[in-house]
Amino acid sequence: MDTTIIQKKIRFQNPLRQSFRHIEMLKKITSPELHEHYKSVVVFTSDNCELKNNTAPNVCKGLTAIRHIKSFDQDIISQSQLDDLVDCIRKYAMQRGFKTDQYHIQNLKNRHAMKIEK
């Protein structure tokens, strides 16, 4: 009996660009005094992913993300600022669900279509 493993390539957004866009959106909706404190961390959770040896420290796989995050050992914003930040994100967050997923997918398709046309 032969066993065949079928490998399927899955396309996904560049996680570094995606993280950058998330931070840029946070900067649009939050207080300017917080902008310098945002840090990007990209975490791959799949056991099947393979990261290059020269990956930046903010690009992690699995539990190494915890070690990276814990390396920031100083509080840089107050609890009050953190509460305000969470409230702000909740205010702009879309309700989770199928419609939101479809809206997000359509936005991605539109954005990538514009890049191709340029």
Topology (elements, then pairings):
Layout: H1 15-29, E1 42-44, E2 59-61, H2 64-70, H3 79-92, H4 98-117
Parallel strand pairs: 1-2
Write up this protein:
This protein has 118 residues and is mainly alpha-helical. It has one domain. It is built from 4 helices and 2 strands, in the order αββααα. A two-stranded parallel ribbon has the order 1-2. The N and C termini lie far apart (51 Å). The mean pLDDT is 82.
Concise account of the structure shown:
By secondary structure, the chain is mainly alpha-helical.
Mean pLDDT: 82
Question: Share of helix among residues?
Answer: 40-55%
Low-confidence stretches: none
State the distance separating the first and last CA atoms.
51 Å
Q: How many domain regions?
A: 1
Q: What about the largest sheet?
A: 2 strands, parallel
Shape: globular
**Spatial strand order of the main sheet:** 1-2
- Our Rg estimate from Cα atoms comes to 18 Å
Global structural class: mainly alpha
| Multimeric state | single chain
Q: Specify the number of helices.
A: 4
Query: What is the beta-strand fraction?
Result: 5-15%
- The total beta strand count reads 2
SSE run: HEEHHH
